[in-house]
Known about the structure:
Layout: H1 3-10, H2 12-19, H3 21-31, E1 47-54, H4 59-62, H5 67-71, H6 79-82, E2 106-109, E3 114-117, H7 121-125, E4 130-136, H8 143-152, H9 162-170, E5 180-186, E6 213-215, H10 233-254, H11 257-279, H12 287-292, H13 303-315, E7 320-326, H14 334-358, E8 365-370, E9 374-375, E10 392-393, E11 397-402, E12 410-412, E13 414-415, E14 422-424, H15 429-439, E15 449-451, E16 454-456
Parallel strand pairs: 1-7, 1-8, 4-12, 5-6, 5-7
Antiparallel strand pairs: 2-3, 4-11, 8-11, 9-10, 13-14, 15-16
Helix pairs in contact: 1-2, 10-11, 13-14
Amino acid sequence: MRPPDLANRLTRRALLGNSALGVGATALSTLLANDPIVRHHAPRAKRVIWLFQNGGPSHVDLFDDKPMLRRRHGQQIPDSVVRNRRFSTMTGNQTDRPCVGAIAEIRRRGASGATVSTLLPHTAAIADRLCFVKSMHTTQVNHAPAITFCLTGSERPGRPTMGSWLSYGLGRATEDLPTFVALTSRDREASCGQIFYDHYWGSGFLPTTHQGVKFRGVGEPVLYLQDPTGIDRAHRREMLDDLAALNRERARQIGDPEIDTRVAQYELAYRMQTSVPELTDLSREPEHVLAMYGPDVRRKGSYAYNCLMARRLVERGTRFVQVMHAGWDQHRNLYSQLEIQCRDTDAPSAGLVLDLAQRGLLDDTLVIWSGEFGRTPFLQGKIGSRDQGRDHHPYAFSLWLAGGGSRAGTTYGRTDEFGFDVVEQPVTPHDLQATVLLLLGIDHERLTYRFQGRRYRLTDVHGEVTSGVLA
Length: 471
C-alpha cells in the first residue's frame, strides 16, 4: 500500500477531511460562482472604491472649520479639552500645545453649504454630490493598527479586509479580473514613511481566493502576463489543464480546499493575460476624461492613474478597489507638504466621482474618501519654527462618501469648538463598515465565517448602521 493511502486511512484528521471533501468542494464552487451568495435586502450599491489616504489628513485644515482655533492661534489649548489624552510619542511629552488655525481658508460650498478648504478646489466643486462625515473617531493612535482597524475591524493583523469579506459574501461579478484589487501610490517627495503592509488587502482566515490582488505601479501591473518565448496560448492551455488534473487528484487525496483555490487562481491568471492589457490600454480614453483626473494621470503608479484604473476596474466587474495613497503624515512640514498632497489627490478624487456619474455608475458605486485618523488641533513643534506640524488625532476626523446610496449634499456629525472631540452623532470604523455592508445589501451581523471555534464578522461584536448618511 502506498504511504499516502496508508496515512489517509490511519489519521483521524485525514478521515474527517476526506469525508467532508464533497461538501467543501461544493461550497468552494459556490464561492467562485457569479451569482450572489449573500443578499439580506435589496442593495443600493454593487461595488466600492475606497480612496484611502494613508497618514491621516488634517480634518481641521480641510473640512472641519473651527473659528476658535483661528481666534486662539498660538494660545495654549485648554487642559480641560485635552484631559490627559494619549497621543503618539512625538507629542506625548510635549508641554506646550498651542492652537493652530487652518493653514488655508475653509469656505462654504454649493447649495449644501459644506465646508471645504481652498486647498481642495475640485472637491469643493462637487460638494453637493458628497456626504461629509465629521464625527469619525477611532481607538488607535498609530498608523498601522489604525489602518488595520479601518480595513479589517480589528487593530491586529490577521483578520480579512472588507474587500475580502465582500468577495466571500457576494462572489464574483467577472471571470476575467479579480474581485478585489489594491492599488498603491505615495507622494513624490517621499515625505511620508508609511509602509503598505500586505495584510491591508489580505484575506485573513477566509479562503485565499478572496485575497486582494495588488497591481504594481511600475512595469507590468501583474507579473508574467506574457508567455515565455516558445509558449503560445494553446500550449499554456494544455499545461494548465494537466496541472489542474494533478491538483484535483491531490485535492481528492487530502481534502485541502486551498488546492481548489490554487486551481481557480491559475485559471484567473490565464484570463488576466488578456484582460489586464486591455484594462491598462488608455488609447481609447477621451482626452476630456483624462483631463478630469489631472496632469499626472498618465504616470503609472500615480494616485491619478490609480483612480482612473479604479473606474476601469469597476466598469469591468471588479467589486472592491482599494486605492491607497501615502503622504498625509505632516508632523514637521504642515505648511509645505499638506498643499502638495491636496494638489496631487484633489483633482483625481473629484474626477473619479464625476467620471462615474457621467457613465451612470455612481448611483450603484460607493466611493469612500478617508484616512485612518485626523490631526491634532494643536501644534507639534513651536510657533514660528521651520518644522511645524500636527500629530495623529484619533478622537475626531472627517471623511466623505459619494454615490452608492449615500446621502448627497449632507454633513453628518459635529465636533467641539476646537475640533478635538466628537459631540454629535459619533461614528466608529465598525459603524462605517456596518453601513457600507448595508448599502451592499448585507446585514453586518449575519455575514459570518466560522474559524477556530467561533463565528467572526467584519464588525466583530460592534457596529451600528449610520442611517443619517443613507439616501
